[in-house]
Amino acid sequence: MTEPLEGADWAARADEGRRLAPRAGEPAADAALLALLLDASDSAVSRRTAEALARTGSPAAARLLTEALARADAALGDWIETGVEDATAPPPTR
């Protein structure tokens, strides 16, 4: 569990981020979550992992998001921020 799903399609990697988000603060989960946040092959993985972490609201999740933003390039940082915004936005109305 220490490595994200290498070679898996983007949806499986994004699902892994959502699955691991509640475990933020555990060293093995943190390593995998950071790798998913910094996923250079698909920004959707970063966005959905960031959203899942932001929804947890834990200090460990905030620390991971902050670390990822510090390490990401501008474009990926924008996707991480968008994921956080997705988590905090009110649900759409019909």
**Level of helix content?**
55-70%
Biggest sheet, open or closed, and with what strands and sense? none
Mean pLDDT, rounded to whole units? 92
Radius of gyration: 12 Å
Which percent range describes the beta-strand content? Answer: under 5%
Number of strands: 0
Quickly give the structural class.
Answer: mainly alpha
The general outline is globular
The sequence of SSEs as H and E is HHHHH
Return residue spans where pLDDT drops below 50 for at least 5 consecutive residues.
none
Total of DSSP H or I helical runs spanning 4+ residues? 5
End-to-end separation in angstroms reads 39 Å
Short description:
This protein has helices at residues 10-20, 27-37, 43-56, 59-71, 74-88.
Structure, explained:
The structure is a single chain. The protein is an all-alpha fold. The chain is built from 5 helices and no strands. α1 packs parallel to α3.
Overview features:
94 residues; mainly alpha; 68% helix; globular
List the helices and strands and how they pair.
Elements: H1 10-20, H2 27-37, H3 43-56, H4 59-71, H5 74-88
Helix pairs in contact: 1-2, 1-3, 2-4, 3-4, 3-5, 4-5
